[in-house]
Design goal:
The protein is built from twelve helices and twelve strands. With 385 residues, the protein is α/β, with parallel strands linked by helices. β4, α6 and β5 form a beta-alpha-beta unit. 50% of the residues are buried. It binds pyridoxal-5'-phosphate. The site of pyridoxal-5'-phosphate has 16 residues, from α3 and α4.
Length: 385
């Protein structure tokens, strides 16, 4: 399995990527190397590992798995998605400019505007579904284009291949936060992106039991710098976290298939419900970018957003009434979650151009029975009625 893993289908890669029988014992699953340091046989002579911030075999397995799943050459793991994003942004120098999609994760917006802007990096948040707007937004100092697709929580799609071409024509590099789709549904490097970013906390880990992040690239020069930064800044994941994430990856293909089935069933149910004002789901023909979703993604995913009649008051009642859907932030786990972005995940963008309506509900469909999920929502919606 060690050579030519790209020749395998995604389901196979998810099980095998990065993981080799342990050279010492033959253990089939990569051991948790719970150590901070590694013995040297002479000064500077070791088996590739000297100190665990710089490298750890469990982390190496995870990094290789992540690179393979995205069809990339190099992967790096971090202690959180935000740590990965922060490390990538260190490629941008003071005085340079970053173009950002106008619907990004609240924490990303906070990092860009409340932390990195203070170090002299310029950010513009623009409507990236309009390619003319993108083309006109470049400046001579634009170093990086950053987007999420589908976005959180409005599930807007951006055309990765078209924006990659524009970024490169304007001398910029291009990063895609692929957290919502996961590599099972969308592989941005294959569409021209230079960097893929993940909060592995979500679909990649998949079990709501570990926080982590990742950066994947094919650009050797950038990777060398990012690897240096990973060690220099030090926001690395521990071996136990790497193990849990590797374990989650084994079932990524299976889980995403069920997330997509449940997402579609739930979205279709909501679209017909009188208490619902509007459903946003890339797998519904009513989605403004339904065609792009078909072209760019292997499936519409497990995230569904919808607005309800009766404002935030009704939205709060519904989110409190579900039983299977747990009221909680985060997404992408095996269990279904429900939340109100405005007062919860997107509280940090209130009063900004990224603010979202109070009657918006976001659900993360887990891998339970789709019929049970629909029954639970039907009950909550009628109770709110
Ligand atoms: C959760 C999330 C992040 C941040 O990741 P953490 O692991 O929570 O630090 C970044 N981008 C998106 C799209 C996310 O959903």
């Amino acid at each position: 399995m060690s050579t030519n893993k790209q020749a395998f289908d995604f389901e196979t890669l998810a099980v095998h990527a990065g993981v080799e029988p342990d050279p010492l014992t033959g253990a089939v699953m990569t051991p948790i190397y719970q150590t901070s340091t590694f013995a040297q046989s002479d000064v500077g002579v070791h088996k590739g590992y000297d100190y665990a911030r710089s490298g750890n075999p469990t982390r190496t397995a995870l990094q290789n798995a992540l690179a393979t799943l995205e069809g990339g050459r190099y992967g790096l793991s971090f202690s959180s998605g935000m740590a990965a994003i922060d490390t990538l942004l260190r490629l941008v120098q003071p005085g340079e400019h970053v173009l950002v999609g106008n619907d990004v994760y609240g924490g990303t917006y906070r990092l860009f505007t409340k932390v990195l802007a203070g170090y002299g990096i310029d950010f513009d948040f623009i409507e990236m579904s309009d390619l003319a707007v993108v083309e006109n937004a470049f400046r001579p100092k634009t170093r990086l284009v950053w987007l999420e697709t589908p976005t959180n929580p409005l599930l807007k799609l951006f055309d990765i291949a078209a924006i990659a071409d524009m970024a490169h024509a304007n001398g910029a590099q291009f990063a895609v936060d692929n957290t919502f789709a996961s590599p099972a549904l969308q592989q941005p490097l294959q569409l021209g992106a230079d960097f893929v970013v993940h909060s592995t906390t979500k679909y990649i880990g998949g079990h709501s039991d570990v926080v982590g992040g990742a950066l994947i690239t094919n650009d050797e020069t950038a990777h060398d710098r990012l690897k240096f930064l990973q060690n220099a800044i030090g926001a690395v994941p521990g071996p136990q976290d790497c193990f849990l994430t590797l374990r989650g990856i084994k079932t990524l293909a299976l889980r995403m298939a069920q997330h997509c089935r449940n997402g579609l069933q739930v979205a279709q149910f909501l679209a017909d419900h009188p208490a619902v004002e509007r459903v946003i789901y890339p797998g519904l023909e009513s989605h403004p970018q339904f065609d792009l979703a078909r072209r760019q993604m292997a499936g519409p995913g497990g995230m569904v957003s919808f607005t309800v009649h009766g404002g935030e008051t009704q939205a709060r009642i519904i989110a409190n009434k579900t039983e299977l859907f747990t009221l909680a932030e985060s997404l992408g786990g095996v269990e279904s979650l429900i939340e109100l972005p405005a007062p919860m995940t997107h509280a940090s963008v209130a009063d900004s151009p990224l603010a979202v309506p109070g009657n918006l509900i976001r659900i993360s469909c887990g891998i339970e029975s789709g019929d049970d999920l629909v029954k639970d929502l039907a009950h909550a919606l009628s109770a709110a009625g």
